[in-house]
Amino acid sequence: MSGYDFLKGVRVLEVAALGPSSLGGYLADMGADVVKVEDAVGDGVRYAGNPAMGSPNGESLLHLRWNRGKRSVQLDLKSDDGRTTFLQLAAKAEIVIEGMRAGILDRLGLGFEALKAVNPAIIFCSISGLGRYGPYAEMGSHGPSFDAFGALSSINPYALTKEERVKSAATPVGMHAMGLYAAIGTLSALTRARATGEGALVEVAAADCAAHWLPDVVDAALNPDQCFDRPGFLGGRGKQAHWPRLCRYECSDGRGIFFQALSPKFWDRFCAAVERPDLAALYADGRDVNEADEDVHRELVTLFATRPFADWMALFGLHDVPAGAANSRETLVTDPHFLARHNVYAVDLPGKGELRLTGTPIKTPDQEFAPALAPTAGRDQDAVLDDWLND
Questions:
Q1: Buried/exposed 199-211: b ≥16 CB within 10 Å, e otherwise
Q2: What is the C-alpha to C-alpha distance for residues 200 and 73, in angstroms, rounded to an integer?
Q3: For residues 4 and 369, is the Cβ–Cβ distance under 8 A?
């Protein structure tokens, strides 16, 4: 059972492992019938990453998210029988996902051209680390390398201790962005195929996703002669003028709050709400902005520490001053806004009890998001072959 019913009736055949499994996961979340084709070993993402769920050797959270709502069959695509069955399934699918090193299905005689011969409207999405062409295309790659390529980071979070990972500001981008970009491309191609009968090869590389993530970084580097410092940003320290008015502070109960009174009208409202006209006076005409900002920051650190988070949020709501939670992982999962927006669903882990997992940021008022637990390898063999090949 998948999440929503928006893609009900869309058949997806997935040959993917690790991060590329996320594409099929997003499609399953929206209601597609995603059949995961696995070999005798199965997708390594089942036991990748930390923590393990249910027991020290249990399944991973990556697997429980990216493979939820899918069905699984096991085929040996190196054998004649396996390839024959795969082609029979592809003839009934609308989308085929190649989510391994690019070109593997071509080498097995199951690439885009071979699939078009049995299904001219097929959408073939190749999602990989480095893509189908380019100097690095034949290289192996792993998640942290995508961000290193894209000038985002060269930190491997798994090289850090558990405590260091919690404190680290490094967040993997390429590994998680590739499924989202691929979903957009795949569904766009599907829309055209349904209208025209014309299939398409869609390709997404995680390294490209990381490189495209920050337009004001890479695009600036592409146009150095056309880039100029914008008035209002301080050159020497690289800080925006009035930066303390768009900043995180700690409240008296230890919770973080993100203060957002950057614009003059919100700053004036805040100063009036806390009855501190002296704060506004720190930005007196003619005063150096750097010095004023340092003084304001010191005052705000002291001020925010005088009240708990809930009191500050109530005050800001009353006076229409932008502010929000600056959560840790621990406070996020208890944050009332996070919980009120149905970001958590429950599923039973056989023999281990209930798990509470994050759902999808895509909401609809008409449906509950409650996908089935990610399958064991080959669990749905008979049911899939019967559903797809005998309909």
A1: bbbbbbbbbbbbb
A2: 25
A3: yes
Rounded CA separation 188/202 (Å): 10
- Nearest by Cα to 150 from 213, 102, 99: 213
Interatomic CA distance for residues 86 and 375, integer angstroms: 19
Q: Measure the CA–CA gap between 170 and 193, rounded to whole angstroms.
A: 39
Residue 208: CA count within 13 A, CB half-sphere: 17
Residue 251: what are its φ and ψ, rounded to 5°? -90, 175
* Full pLDDT tens readout for the chain, 391 residues: 668 999 999 999 999 999 999 999 999 999 999 999 999 999 988 998 888 898 998 999 999 999 999 999 999 999 999 999 999 999 999 999 999 989 999 999 999 999 999 999 999 999 999 999 999 998 888 888 899 899 887 777 767 787 777 777 667 899 999 999 999 999 999 999 999 999 999 999 999 999 999 888 889 889 999 988 777 665 434 568 899 999 999 999 999 999 999 999 999 999 999 999 999 999 988 888 889 999 999 999 999 999 999 999 999 999 999 999 999 889 999 999 999 999 999 999 998 899 999 999 999 998 999 899 999 999 999 999 999 999 7
Spatial separation of the C-alpha atoms in residues 264 and 297, rounded to whole Å: 16
How far is 109 from 103, CA to CA, in rounded Å? Answer: 10
Report CA-CA distances (Å) from 43 to 20, 138, 248, 254, 308. 11, 21, 41, 41, 46
What number of other Cβ atoms are within 10 A of residue 118's Cβ? 13
Between CA 362 and CA 122 the distance in angstroms is 26
Query: How many CB atoms sit inside 10 A of residue 162's CB?
Result: 8
Residues contacting residue 272 through CB under 8 Å, at least 6 positions apart: 319
Contacting residues for 19 by C-beta, under 8 A, at least 6 apart:
45, 66, 143, 175, 176, 178, 179, 206
Q: Pull the structure tokens for residue 380.
A: 């749905």
Give the separation between CA 165 and CA 170, rounded to whole angstroms.
8
The tokens describing 266, both together, are 């919100």
Distance (Å, whole) CA 47 – CA 59: 5
H/E run at residue 361: none
φ, ψ for residue 224 (rounded to 5)? Answer: -60, -30
